[in-house]
Amino acid sequence: MPKRILQGTVVSNANDKTVTVKVERRFTHPLLKKTVRRSKKYRAHDEANKYQVGDTVLIEECAPISKSKRWTVVEQ
């Protein structure tokens, strides 16, 4: 099964080797027929600590690294 890849913005890099990435998705509301924006935050593994707040990154699904980390940063 292919791994999921999501694009988002780094909102925090306070932890060592970890970044928090905010991923936003847009969809049409089924009843109101209006475009709705929903966002979710993911913790991702950043081995080199090279990503800063505000960077746009791609994250890829991976095996669990810790209690909250299930994603790794692929590229910017």
Automatic annotation (TrEMBL):
One of the primary rRNA binding proteins, it binds specifically to the 5'-end of 16S ribosomal RNA. InterPro entries: NA-bd_OB-fold, Ribosomal_uS17, Ribosomal_uS17_bact/chlr. It holds the Pfam family Ribosomal_S17. Part of the 30S ribosomal subunit. Belongs to the universal ribosomal protein uS17 family. Keywords: Ribonucleoprotein, Ribosomal protein, RNA-binding, rRNA-binding. GO terms for cellular component: cytosolic small ribosomal subunit. One of its GO terms (biological process) is translation. This is Small ribosomal subunit protein uS17. The keyword Ribonucleoprotein applies. Gene3D superfamilies: Nucleic acid-binding proteins (2.40.50.140). One of its GO terms (molecular function) is rRNA binding. NCBIfam families: PRK05610.1, uS17_bact. The gene is rpsQ. The keyword Ribosomal protein applies.
